[in-house]
Fold this sequence. Notes:
- By secondary structure, the chain is mainly α.
- The chain has two domains: 1-36; 49-433, Orthogonal Bundle (Ammonium transporter fold).
- The protein has 15 helices and two strands.
- The protein has helices at residues 3-36, 40-72, 78-105, 136-157, 164-186, 191-195, 203-221, 242-261, 270-302, 307-322, 330-353, 362-375, 386-413, 421-426, 428-433; strands at 228-229, 233-234.
- The chain has a two-stranded antiparallel ribbon with strand order 1-2.
- Helix 8 (242-261) packs parallel to helix 10.
Amino acid sequence: xxxxxxxxxxxxxxxxxxxxxxxxxxxxxxxxxxxxxxxxxxxxxxxxxxxxxxxxxxxxxxxxxxxxxxxxxxxxxxxxxxxxxxxxxxxxxxxxxxxxxxxxxxxxxxxxxxxxxxxxxxxxxxxxxxxxxxxxxxxxxxxxxxxxxxxxxxxxxxxxxxxxxxxxxxxxxxxxxxxxxxxxxxxxxxxxxxxxxxxxxxxxxxxxxxxxxxxxxxxxxxxxxxxxxxxxxxxxxxxxxxxxxxxxxxxxxxxxxxxxxxxxxxxxxxxxxxxxxxxxxxxxxxxxxxxxxxxxxxxxxxxxxxxxxxxxxxxxxxxxxxxxxxxxxxxxxxxxxxxxxxxxxxxxxxxxxxxxxxxxxxxxxxxxxxxxxxxxxxxxxxxxxxxxxxxxxxxxxxxxxxxxxxxxxxxxxxxxxxxxxxxxxxxxxxxxxxxxxxxxxxxx
Length: 444
């Protein structure tokens, strides 16, 4: 070994010795650092982060709804659906800022609604002394994207024959008044909350609300031209793109992890982290069961698998598990989601028999599966009862249905809600938007 090599070896050994002597002190410094990061401030950061991550995942669901609807309507109406979806999301945000948030959360105190006032962010109060703190702006953002989801449900049902501006007027009232009031009854600490009603992430508060509003709109608006023929027949009107519809479904599935997972409302403890993880796996297994159940049932009933039923089966499974995604075992989550998929397959033709034209199947997915999911909560959550759950489903259903019906009728008899027959045949891309999604070709 050369002299240089010996010096290098000795220097290395000395360095290791010094590291060994300082290791306990270094470890103590790391331990102290970890200890200082384990208090209320850290819980505040993680809770806020959960709201923000969940919020932007739910916001991404707006893209899912847009793509799902774009795929399930005919080519001549695709640009109209895209326009409605970006417009309703924007309106929901503004209305929730102007009146919705405070109406839903400010001073409800066991009553029916909060204050009618402008929401203003106030994060100046510090992090508190426990693990329940979070930035109020993150909470507003998370709650706002939920109300936009409810409005998106209405858009798909009424596609291909409703005028743009009457629909947007309805969206203003739905997101600013109707949704916040019924949401205050439970999530705002209102009378349903006091009674013990449970709807973890909104099978009824979000999805059935959108479903009831959509159903009332479909009844007043009427079916598309040529959808139902004399003698009770149904004229199929295939959508423009199954790849787009499938992409939209996968985007919605991804967004649902924020929808359900962040509804735990906290990530500041080990128990919260475990709860969010459980919610994630229950959410995805329910969606998977909805797909499989819908595929098997359509094969048995129609001798073929219907891709639109499979897609809506996934969404119905997601809607069904949303009311209680934490308490069920994986087996129960599979059953709850699977029944959601069955509900879609059975109720889509039921609506056709009643001549209720729901273009994308939103009423079976969001209303019927939402009711099922809410009523299924006592099966896995012993703190609830079927009577109380039914009270919540019925009361919210009556309020949303009646208020939506009144509003749809008012719009119909004032500014009108339906385009002309000529405009419907032409397609709303040309008639209402002036920009076609597929200018090279359109089909009826």
